[in-house]
Amino acid sequence: MEREFVFIKPNAVRRSLIGEIISRYEKKGLKIIALKMIQMTKTQSEKLYKEHEGKDFYKPLIDFVLSGPVLVMVLEGERAVEVVRHMHGDTDPLKAFPGSIRGDYGLTVRKNIVHASDSQEKAEKEWQIFFDQEELLEYSIGEENF
Length: 146
Hints:
The protein has one domain: Nucleoside diphosphate kinase-like domain (Alpha-Beta Plaits), CATH 3.30.70. It has helices spanning 10-14, 18-28, 42-48, 58-65, 80-88, 101-105, 120-130, and strands at 2-8, 31-38, 70-77, 114-116. The mean pLDDT is 95. The protein has seven helices and four strands, in the order E-H-H-E-H-H-E-H-H-E-H. The chain has a four-stranded antiparallel sheet. By secondary structure, the chain is α+β, with helices and mostly antiparallel strands. The chain is globular, with a radius of gyration of 15 Å.
């Protein structure tokens, strides 16, 4: 099983899309093993986007993710990184296919609704910015639990 770090950005929170987005992950069969709504700190945002430091979009990106509450989560499932990135669609919502989260709800490249790590290694580094190891829960999902 892979783990993937995802966060729902402030514009999606303001547009009341949290439930719709989480529902898509659950319907796909991904398990939410950590979840919380936070006001991201400047330190957290700078750690998360360190690789973009010095680029023209870095400061506007930091300002954007600090502009309101976000929902951070860790998802678990088969090929979770690949599955989530496919579900999110292209970073540019105009290029994202219909049915993807960005294709259905995104409006601009810089304010593109959701973030997902691009590898398992990066996912682990990113979720550790927001969660302690003991916050990641182990449990079973499926019909056998009903």
